[in-house]
Amino acid sequence: MKKPSSLWNPWHGCHKLSEGCRHCYVYRIDGKHGKDSSVVAKTDNYDLPLRRKKNGEYKIPAGNTVFTCFSSDFLVEDADGWRKDAWKMMDIRRDVNFFFITKRIDRLMECLPDNWGDGYEHVTICCTMENQDRVDYRMPIYMEVPVCHKIIICEPLLGKIDLSPYLGTWVEQVVAGGESGKDARICDYDWVLDLRRQCIEAGVSFYFKQTGSYLRKDGKIYRIARQFQHSQARKALINFEPE
Question: Domains plus CATH for the chain?
Answer without folding.
Answer: 5-235 (3.20.20)
